[in-house]
Amino acid sequence: MKFIIDDADIEKVREIWDLYPCDGVTTNPSILAKSGRNPYEVLTELREIVGKDGELHVQVVSNAEGMVKEAAVIRERLGENTFVKIPTTPQGLKAMKILSAQGVNITATAIYTPMQGFLAAKAGAKYAAPYVNRIDNMGYDGIKTAMDIHDIFENNGLNTEVLAASFKNSQQVLELTKYGIGAATVGTAVIEGLIKNAAITSAIDAFVDDFAGLVGEGKTMMDC
Ligand code: G3P
Predict the structure, then answer these.
(1) Which ligand 1 atom minimizes the distance to the CA of 6?
(2) Which of 49, 160, 165, 173 pairs as cysteine with 121 (C-beta 3.0–4.6 A)?
């Protein structure tokens, strides 16, 4: 499963990218709006952080014809491997068909139902992004929806992966990790909670204390 950062706070993304084993960064218009800056300024800095081979996902906002034009500008300014995020609407499906025929990396987004996932895959998307927590908040089962989409791809021999999004807690991420979906994009606050645990901290503290008792305060395996 690819592990992706769902954020555009440059300092936070840089910190998480440095510490955790991440494969890329996803953004959407709301995430970019939080920066209050020109979107391309922020996206160029994100591209620098993830490098030329890291995944960067950038969303379009117009109708089919406009989405195709937006995709060209996004790829020109941020690299041809940039994933163009396209909402899974009828207009979006049309844009996906045109862009996938041109070899553009597409992430079908705003997915709330398995049928959206199926149609996006048929239209040539490389990823389909169900919004796990938003689905839960509607009274449906976001984890089950993501699993169903994963199964639909497998059962139909479709070359598309689930990129689950909109996580609010570690358990949601863990359930889909166990299931072996293609990718999860997770906000920085949830990433920081994934392995935060008093038992872990306490175990490490005891190791450090025991070692200090053996060889002296502040000494490490380099200097004893
Ligand atoms: O891009 C989609 C995803 O990031 C939505 O997450 O937290 O706004 O539900 P959230």
Answers:
(1) 4
(2) 160
Instruction: Indicate the top mutation candidate among 56, 133, 138, 190 to test ligand 1's pocket, ranked by most ligand atoms within 8 A of CB.
Output: 133
Buried b (16+ CB within 10 A) or exposed e, 72-105: eebbeebeeebbbbbbbeebbbbbbebbbeeebb
2, 12, 34, 85: which one is catalytic?
A: 85
Q: What is the pLDDT of residue 141?
A: 98
Predicted model pTM:
0.96
Phi then psi for 104, rounded to 5 degrees?
A: -80, 140
**Per-residue pLDDT tens over the stretch 101-129:** 999 999 999 999 999 999 999 999 999 99
3-state secondary structure of 13: helix
Closest residue by CA, ligand 1 atom 5: 166
Q: Give the mean pLDDT of 184-208.
A: 97
